[in-house]
């Protein structure tokens, strides 16, 4: 029955995209978003990654061709934000850059007290995904380091704005939304600091001199602290899900949990390798954090039924083996 519904929905979306009016229909984009999420949690992990990326391309095509005017209505904004989540998720988990229209359309949304900070954070996440994609490609030039420094200033500015908003706001859901905004921000900061460190290390080999060792040590400590905090909050979120016996796909925060664990996992693998090659004592600490990342992903996958977490766990294990054997 489920396969029949999936096939029917897929056929309807394909047929709708053949006509300009079908492309603009809300139902077409909503169906594409649902199809992408279905593939993300498919039991066939090898097949689902390819199918998921195909559906993400479809979501991106539809969201872009609906035009910026979709962000001017309440329903249009809501659907666009869901499409944006899918696109950002794909950008991080597959280390690719998100299309530029996502930023342009997000900037076009009129600021409001409830979702304004979230829209701004989404733009920052897209920029972080771009840094992450360039970092994963190994293109560690000076411009990347400079872009990361500029980005860090914008990220800190957003966090200061969030502090002011939280003090002024009397509404909320007990702070849970704000807590996950913090985690999203922390993940972006880990990417930013790791990119800067990687570009510094790259220049070290060319210039044979590192002029700001104190700054480097401070950034390493900062990444350790942020990673530990994300792992602690992730563990608390999983314990809460288990206590409520709530299936993982029913928790909005847990849907993004895999992405954060993947990003910090990639950074930890590379960080641990560099520390080990340099003979630094912190290599063991990075390894311990990596073990925690994999344990959380395994728990999400096995205990909570998040099949995509198992796929991400496999991807990290493969990356770790390649790094260990000298394959980049």
UniProtKB/TrEMBL annotation:
This is Uncharacterized protein.
């Amino acid at each position: 029955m489920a396969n029949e519904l999936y096939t029917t929905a897929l056929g309807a979306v394909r047929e709708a995209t053949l006509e300009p009016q079908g492309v603009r229909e809300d139902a077409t984009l909503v169906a594409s978003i649902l199809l992408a999420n279905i593939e993300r949690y498919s039991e066939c992990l090898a097949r689902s990654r390819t199918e998921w990326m195909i559906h993400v391309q479809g979501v991106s095509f539809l969201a872009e061709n609906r035009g910026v005017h979709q962000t001017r209505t309440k329903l249009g904004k809501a659907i666009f934000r869901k499409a944006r989540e899918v696109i950002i998720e794909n950008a991080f988990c597959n280390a690719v850059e998100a299309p530029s229209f996502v930023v342009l359309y997000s900037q076009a949304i009129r600021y409001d007290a409830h979702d304004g900070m979230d829209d701004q954070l989404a733009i920052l996440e897209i920029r972080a995904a771009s840094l992450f994609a360039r970092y994963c490609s190994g293109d560690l030039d000076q411009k990347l380091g400079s872009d990361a420094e500029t980005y860090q200033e914008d990220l800190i500015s957003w966090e200061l704005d969030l502090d002011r908003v939280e003090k002024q706001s009397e509404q909320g859901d007990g702070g849970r939304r704000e807590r996950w905004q913090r985690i999203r921000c922390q993940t972006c900061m880990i990417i930013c600091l790791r990119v800067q460190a990687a570009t510094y290390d790259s220049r070290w080999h060319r210039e044979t001199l590192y002029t700001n060792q104190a700054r480097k040590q401070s950034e390493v400590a900062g990444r350790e602290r942020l990673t530990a905090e994300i792992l602690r909050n992730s563990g608390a979120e999983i314990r809460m899900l288990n206590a409520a016996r709530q299936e993982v796909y029913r928790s909005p925060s847990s849907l993004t949990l895999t992405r954060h664990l993947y990003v910090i996992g990639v950074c930890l693998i590379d960080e641990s390798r560099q520390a080990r090659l340099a003979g630094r004592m912190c290599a063991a600490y990075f390894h311990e954090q990596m073990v925690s990342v994999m344990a959380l992903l395994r728990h999400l996958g096995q205990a909570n039924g998040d099949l995509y977490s198992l796929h991400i766990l496999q991807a990290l294990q493969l990356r770790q083996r390649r790094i260990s054997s000298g394959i980049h």
